[in-house]
Design a protein that fits this description.
The structure is a single chain. The chain is an alpha/beta fold. It folds into two domains: 240 residues, Nucleotidyltransferase, domain 5; 208 residues, 2-Layer Sandwich (Nucleotidyltransferase, domain 5). The chain is 39% helix and 19% strand. It has 17 helices and 23 strands. The strands form eight sheets. A six-stranded mixed beta sheet has the order 18-19-17-16-22-23, sandwiched between helices. Helix 10 crosses helix 15.
């Protein structure tokens, strides 16, 4: 029986899991790490932390599985998207990676938008420009750290750096490359025009393959570090959005997924490269050639609740926070939260946006504020849902994923706010599962991704349906929620602080 390994290099930590060919999880492990914020708006991570976490979690997952390393047929990778790892000629990182949550490049984004224009940008990339994307981060480095850029010989996405450490080989694949804003999504290739506009040499961008292709074998050095057998095939894998889609079975049109992790996404699969003419949502390549993912992105989803738990409320755990929040009636007696703690993407693409509690009264306590955060994040995802519906995209159900899928309260809030039934899959670590599935496809354990998902992705029996009396209440509050950004956009800009 073939066994497969999936590794997910996330923002908060790295997860590894071992499955058999029927999808049964035999061993899993997780290591957490932090985000460094040396200045306001900056978000960085040390690539070595990803590698250390990969080594530790792979060893632990293998040990728990009680398998010999030689029994692993292949390993697949998933990773946080958009980030920028700059390497010198010796393949050593030139400082910390600039990750997706970074907003330092606001001025560069504004300048590029002005120079390119919306129509040409849509033609070149099918995506909006935003801070934290590789194109924006490299534009910032070019302007503020030219000596650093002069030393760059390769630029990689986070999971591509880990694959480099596993195999010694440079490369990327379409699903993650399409998230850089340097990629021609419709034609599946790097955009020479975008590279020129950003001011970087095309030669520093890696060759691009497809997600289920074999990238190379585990090297002897990596085998010693991870416990894997030298020569084990490593599959290119994909960005965590695409891997999450695979792990949730969102591989055909008609089903949407609301993923609430550190950040949040609401996405659907399309069989043609549709894009929003106003560029409020993203269009990325899926792991399957000829398929794409349309996605709205929320920067501070679970991060908002984590911030409140750690810095304000003093909850002992998320369970305590959600248990108390469940005692507060829907709508929180008029309390609304804008989850723009580090700016926002969909639909505003505004790094200056900031978080807001609106409607605070003496009767509100930490339980009400916790529920308002959960509702506010869900309203932010509904912004993306509305855009997709306006584009004529239909879906009959929503799959809840990430931390938001582990809370009964948050699933009910999603059903009520979206007014669509909500389901979940049984495997909790969907991105790592997606990486393992792609590994299996890469070494012919499965004939294709869709077929593998039909066999391995299992749904929980519970279906959370909207509660009729809650839907109109949330519809009314959503209208207020949407107006708050427009009312305060200029004030957010006035509050901007630059301590760089």
């Amino acid at each position: 029986m073939p066994y497969l390994l999936g590794i997910d290099i996330g923002t908060s930590g790295t997860k590894s899991l071992v499955i058999d060919d029927g999808g049964r999880v035999l061993g899993e492990a997780y290591r957490e790490y932090s985000i460094q914020c040396p200045h306001v708006g900056w978000a960085e991570q040390e690539p070595e932390l990803w590698w250390q976490a990969t080594c530790e979690t792979v060893r632990e997952a293998l040990a728990k599985s009680r398998l010999a390393s030689s029994e692993i047929a292949a390993a697949g990778l998933s990773g946080q998207m958009h980030g920028t790892v700059m390497l010198d000629a010796s393949l050593q990182p030139l400082g910390n990676a600039i990750i997706w949550a970074d907003s330092r490049s606001g001025d560069e984004v504004a300048e590029l938008r002005e120079r390119i224009g919306r129509e040409w940008l849509a033609l070149l990339t099918a995506n909006p420009l935003a801070t934290g994307f590789m194109a924006a981060s490299l534009a910032w480095v070019r302007k503020h750290q030219p000596d650093r850029l002069a030393q760059v010989r390769h630029v990689l996405l986070p999971k591509d750096y880990v694959r480099l450490r596993l195999t010694g080989l440079i490369g990327s694949e379409s699903s993650d490359a399409s998230s850089t804003l340097l990629f021609d999504v419709a034609n599946d290739r790097w955009s020479a025009d975008m590279a020129e506009l950003v001011g970087i040499g095309r030669s520093i961008l890696p060759p691009v393959s497809h997600s289920c292709d074999i990238a190379g074998p585990v090297s002897a050095d990596a085998a010693e570090c991870t416990g894997l057998a030298a020569g084990t095939p490593v599959i290119f894998g994909g960005g965590d959005l695409a891997m999450n889609a695979v792990g949730n079975g969102v591989v055909r049109p008609g089903i949407a997924c609301a993923n609430i992790g550190t950040g949040g996404q609401l996405y659907v699969t399309s069989d043609h490269p549709t894009h929003d003419p106003q560029l409020r949502i993203h269009t990325f390549s899926h792991v399957m050639p000829g398929h794409w993912i349309l996605s709205g992105a929320v920067l501070s989803a679970g991060l908002s609740l984590k911030w409140f738990r750690d810095n304000v409320a003093g909850f002992a755990s998320y369970d305590e926070a959600t248990s108390l929040a469940a005692q507060v009636k829907p709508g929180c007696d008029g309390l609304i939260f804008l989850p723009y703690l580090i700016g926002e993407r969909t639909p505003h693409m505004d790094p200056n946006a900031r978080g807001v509690f609106f409607g605070l009264a003496l009767k509100h306590d930490r339980a009400a504020m916790a529920r308002a955060i959960m509702e506010g994040v869900t309203f932010a995802l509904r912004d993306a849902l509305q855009i997709m519906r306006d584009l004529g995209i239909e879906f009959r159900a929503i799959i809840a994923s990430g931390g938001g899928a582990r809370s009964s309260l948050w699933k009910q809030i999603q059903a009520d706010v979206f007014n669509v039934p909500v389901r979940t899959v049984l495997t909790k670590e969907q991105a790592a599962l997606g990486a393992a599935i792609c590994a299996g496809v890469g070494v012919n354990v499965y004939p294709g991704v869709a077929e593998a998902c039909g066999r391995l992705v299992r749904f929980a029996e519970e279906i959370v349906s909207p509660i009729g009396e809650h839907v109109p209440r949330y519809d009314r509050l959503f209208g207020v929620y949407r107006s708050l950004y427009a009312d305060n956009r200029g004030k957010f800009r006035d509050l901007r602080i630059d301590d760089t």
